[in-house]
TrEMBL record:
Record NCBIfam families: SigE-fam_strep, sigma70-ECF
Keywords: DNA-binding, Sigma factor, Transcription, Transcription regulation
Family as reported in the entry's similarity comment: Belongs to the sigma-70 factor family. ECF subfamily.
Annotated source species: Streptomyces sporangiiformans
Domain RNA polymerase sigma factor 70 region 4 type: 113-163
Gene Ontology molecular function, alphabetical: DNA binding; sigma factor activity
InterPro entries for the chain: RNA_pol_sigma-70-like, RNA_pol_sigma-70_dom, RNA_pol_sigma-E_actinobac, RNA_pol_sigma70_r2, RNA_pol_sigma70_r4_t2, RNA_pol_sigma_r2, RNA_pol_sigma_r3/r4-like, WH-like_DNA-bd_sf
Name recorded for this polypeptide: SigE family RNA polymerase sigma factor
Amino acid sequence: MGDRKQALDEEFQSFVIGRWPRLMRTAFLLTGEQHAAEDLVQSSLERAYVAWRKVSAADDPDAYVWRLMINAHARKHRRRLKEFLAPRSDADFTPELPDTGDRIAQADDRSTLLKALSQLPPRQREAVVLRYWEDLSEAQAAEAMGCSAGAVKSNAAKGIAKLRAIPGLAETVTHGGRK
């Protein structure tokens, strides 16, 4: 029994070490704040640890943990939905600490991109983050978000359309050499 628990603990530790940067990036894109992202990842991983046998036996443990993270994020803001959906002011926005392996860091004006992303409604933000930053398929994002693939497709399309309508963001992407 002790050997099995130790093996599960080591498996969980390996999972956390391998996924931490990606989970942090996703959490930051959902919350818009470094410390809130750290709290979100830690609380999600606490839940994952408690249910690790179930998580590790899942078809896609990453999707399981993303689902935990998205649900925890939604629960935290459910009571303050109006406040959460309102665009954030510059004073409320905390810049992310740079990550050299992060694809978003390639944008010339990271701040503009993250501010624009923070203005999307939660479900659109989740869909855009999971589909385009985490590069998940519609089915994987749907599993992580707990909805249908059609809902992911719709929310992602609406989110991308809103992002494209922001003039400063379009200029940033064009000047950054990406089209």
